[in-house]
Design goal:
The protein is of the alpha+beta class and 859 residues long. It starts with a helix and ends with a strand.
Length: 859
């Protein structure tokens, strides 16, 4: 007991000494503070200034002065001893009233404001302003203007504040001078430059931005190069170094980028095995998810897809914690890699929380719905990697980065998703010319992340020489919370087809659609369309014109008194005596009676499917892969048209040699009426260069040879089939980034099967051409022009074919294509004597068009 009491006393003495020492120090600090006199301060509190002096470790007046200047609050500080006291005299910095940027045209004010530290209502500090100048120059350098100059000036205001004005001379554009690769031998530098999105400066630099140095874009480009090599079997590939240097010289200023690579050897797949270490799991059900086979060139993307597919399949089989681990054994002697996919039970770790950070515009749920994993689920790295790829593929973000951190317990993990929003809307003005549509312009506004909800909206208006229209589209990619792309379209389009056929069309209506991605390669889209088609035949010969459906009373034809009524003049197709055997609509103007008889409005109510399958490696400019679609349509759910139609299109791409891509295309279609009535002419297929290049629009297929005008007698067909062989290749001695390629091609196809009306009792007398009650059409080689109430159909299954060459330009102004084709085979028509022309001619021949040009611009 006595011992314990002694201990307590000793502790009490120690505590008293500590408290006394602390009190002494505090009193000393107070005494020191009372001996510090502050002068010249107006806004900064005197105690704040004293704290910088008393807080000095050595009590040095010089150190106190430096600390006060470093605070950024003062333009000048003097510290001196006087009469046993320390006198601190300060001159405060002026307050900044506003920050102004002058001369900036290429970079917005908001961007520059985010870079500078000088802010309104903050203290003016010359050192900070000079640092801001350096930061502004760096912004311009990264934007491709390395010669930009920045100065500043201040404007004193009466209240003791100043305006800070940054004066900017943006200078000329200084982008990427050169991009070079070192160490590559299996893949040419031309191909590698074609992979990256960055490009070198050239004569198109005034309209492109890909030649601007952007470190983030360069990093993405390097990843594209890495993935390309890994797709080609170079499993040991690595990027040794990527050097970006800014150079200045008398000829040019800009960035020089040098990428050093180590390719290694190309590997093939020596063996593939799935090793399941989960009891009760049948590995045979997993074989369908393996995307690579023995003998294939090693492809890292196929390995990633296999991992993703196996992980999903195993999870569906009831193993939520299972993980699939890839293994690879390289045999450098045979250049083979043996692939293994080990399925094993992983650690029982759950996702405690998913944090989404950095999204200032995109809603959280837009990001979360791309995840195949949610809070509370078993954690799986393969699924998070796939989600990261999906988010990067949306185009909503500059960058997406996944990271993990420990949760509240060892079996919990927190997933952090850091994103940076980027602009997703666009306003564009496009213009172009094509041999079919003439000069045309388009103004469009689109937004792929509407209101941050991930919805796509587009409104476009077009106008030109021969067409005009309006189109509105809306798509919700996750309809009712499922991965269903639902949307609708509304459209109006007028087309003047009188250069190739003697009629005009106006189509307006809308479409509802919903798309379901069954797998990553296969999808189904359900469609319902309701549209009205108005067909009109203009009176191009400027004479009174009768609509066959509503003849103009009193319009009759010329006759002679000596002719018998009801007989027909073979030279003109007109009655010889009395009233006209047929109203003027039967022969006035050049259009076929099949066209004239189809005038007016046709309402079509149509339901259909689109079945699409794609394994293309790159959308827009594929090198390898298959794209195929099948579109069955059924019309007759109301409306005027009643038919079943099916069309198909398949394209297979293969890189034959480096940068040389070949593709094969097969297309076809058929339409059949659902009742005994003939097909309406507006429902049949009218084809030309879209099937076989070298032919004019509406240039092939069934024709009405009962008219002498070559442009008027295309009447459409019910069946078509066609094929294309094409090889695309780079043009020699042309820089890759100009986007120029050449192509040679061969096309073949046919259109046949006119299933429309062949006779029209336009005058209502139950006579066809005045020959017999009930109607009859009796054509022969010399009947041209004498039976205007009949469609004299020439319908041949002749194979049309052509060969040709093309120049393709993926220009900054938009894709442009020049095709020159020579028709090898065609339907020559029938050679007859044409009374109205007074000579022999070919009637019903296909119409050719050797040169075809299409293109556009976007600016």
């Amino acid at each position: 007991m006595m011992s314990m009491t002694g201990k307590h006393r000793r502790k009490s003495v120690k505590r008293t000494i500590v408290l006394a020492a602390a009190a002494g120090i505090a009193l000393t600090g107070v005494a020191q503070a009372q001996q510090i006199v502050v002068q010249g301060n107006r806004r900064v509190d005197a105690d704040t200034i004293r704290s910088y002096v008393t807080g000095t470790a050595s009590g040095s007046a010089e150190e106190a002065r430096r600390n006060l200047l470093a605070s950024g609050m003062f333009a000048d500080v003097r510290v001196a001893a006087s009469g046993g006291r320390t006198v601190v005299t300060v001159r405060e910095n002026n307050l900044i009233n506003r920050v102004v940027f002058e001369g900036n045209k290429k970079i917005e004010k908001a961007t520059l404001e985010g870079q500078v530290e000088a802010k309104a209502r903050g203290a003016f500090n010359e050192a900070v302003v000079k640092s801001d100048m350096a930061r502004i120059k760096e912004v311009y350098r990264r934007a491709g203007r390395g010669t930009a100059k920045v100065t500043y000036r201040t404007v004193d205001l009466p209240n003791g504040s100043v305006d800070v004005i940054y004066q900017i001379d943006e200078g000329d554009k200084t982008g990427i001078v050169s991009i070079s690769f070192v160490g590559n031998s299996a893949v040419s530098e031309r191909t590698l430059k074609g992979l990256v999105s960055s490009s070198e400066m050239n004569f198109l630099s005034f309209i492109k931005t890909s030649d601007v140095y952007d470190p983030d874009r360069i990093a993405n480009d390097l990843d594209l190069v890495r993935r390309y090599y890994l797709r080609k079997g170079y499993a040991d590939f690595r990027i040794v170094n990527a050097d970006a240097r800014y150079v200045e010289g008398p000829d040019a200023n800009g960035w020089v980028i040098t990428v050093t690579v180590e390719e290694g050897e190309q590997y093939t797949v020596g063996a593939v095995a799935v090793d399941s270490r989960l009891p009760g799991l049948d590995t045979t059900r997993l074989d369908g998810e393996v995307r690579t086979a023995v003998g294939d060139i090693y492809n890292a993307e196929d390995v990633e897809k296999t991992l993703s597919g196996l992980t999903n399949d195993v999870a569906r089989a009831g193993y939520p914690f299972a993980q699939v681990r890839p293994t690879g054994q390289r045999d450098r002697a045979t250049h083979q890699v043996s692939l293994g996919f080990v399925v094993e039970d992983g650690p029982r770790v759950y996702v405690e929380r998913i944090n989404i950070r950095g999204n200032t515009r995109t809603r959280d749920y837009v990001i979360r719905r791309e995840l195949d994993i949610a809070e509370g689920d078993a954690y799986n790295r393969v699924l998070t990697d796939r989600a990261e790829r999906r988010l990067n593929g949306l185009g909503f973000f500059k960058k997406v980065r996944f990271s993990n951190e420990p949760g509240s317990s060892p079996d919990r993990v927190v997933i952090n998703i850091d994103v940076e929003d980027q602009p997703t809307g666009s306003f564009s003005v496009a213009g172009g010319y094509s041999t079919q549509d003439g000069i045309i312009g388009e103004v469009s506004v689109s937004e792929s992340n509407f209101l941050g909800r991930g919805q796509y909206v587009r409104l476009a208006g077009t106008g030109g020489q021969y067409s005009r229209g309006v189109d509105f589209s809306f798509t919700e990619p996750y309809f009712l919370g499922y991965r269903l792309a639902a949307g609708f379209d509304a459209f109006y389009k007028y087309s003047d087809l009188t250069r190739y056929s003697r009629y005009e069309t106006t189509v307006y209506g809308g479409q509802l659609r919903i798309g379901l991605p069954v797998t990553e390669q296969f999808g189904v889209t359900l469609r319902y369309s309701l549209y009205n088609t108005e067909l009109k035949v203009p009176n191009s010969i400027k004479q009174p014109y009768n609509d066959c459906s509503n003849p103009i009373p009193g319009l009759t034809d010329v006759y002679t008194a000596n002719d018998a009524r009801g007989t027909v003049d073979p030279a003109t197709g007109r009655s010889r005596v009395g009233l006209a055997s047929y109203p003027n609509c039967a022969y006035n103007g050049e259009a076929s009676i099949a066209i004239k008889g189809s005038q007016g409005n046709t309402l079509t109510s149509l339901a259909g499917l689109t079945l699409a399958y794609s394994t293309l490696d790159v959308i827009g400019a594929p090198r390898n892969g298959l794209y195929a679609e099948l579109k069955p349509d059924l019309a007759g759910l109301g409306g005027d048209s009643k038919f079943f139609r099916v069309t198909g299109d398949a394209r297979y791409y293969k890189e034959l040699y480096e940068d040389v891509v070949g593709f094969v295309r097969i297309q076809g279609g058929h339409i059949e009426a659902l009742d005994s009535n003939p097909l309406r002419i507006t429902d049949q297929f009218f084809l030309g260069p879209s099937l076989v290049r070298g032919f004019a629009p509406n240039g092939i297929g069934p024709r009405d040879v009962g008219t002498t005008d070559a442009r008027s007698n295309a009447i459409g067909g019910s069946t078509y089939v066609g094929g294309t062989l094409e090889i695309q290749f780079p043009l020699p001695y042309v820089p890759r980034d100009l986007g120029l390629k050449g192509a040679v091609f061969a096309d073949a196809g046919t259109l046949f099967g006119y299933h429309g009306r062949t006779n029209f009792d336009v005058n209502g007398d139950n006579f066809i051409n005045g020959t017999a009650p009930g109607g009859a059409c009796n054509f022969n080689a010399f009947s041209i022009g004498v039976e205007p109430e009949c469609v004299n159909v020439r319908d041949k299954t002749t194979i049309r074919s052509s060969v040709g060459a093309s120049i393709l330009w993926n220009s900054p102004l938009g894709p442009i294509r020049f095709d020159y084709a020579y028709a090898l085979s065609k339907d020559e028509g029938v050679k007859v004597f044409v009374p109205t022309l007074g000579k022999y001619g070919h009637i019903g021949a296909d119409q050719t068009q050797a040169f075809r040009f299409s293109g556009g611009s976007r600016f």
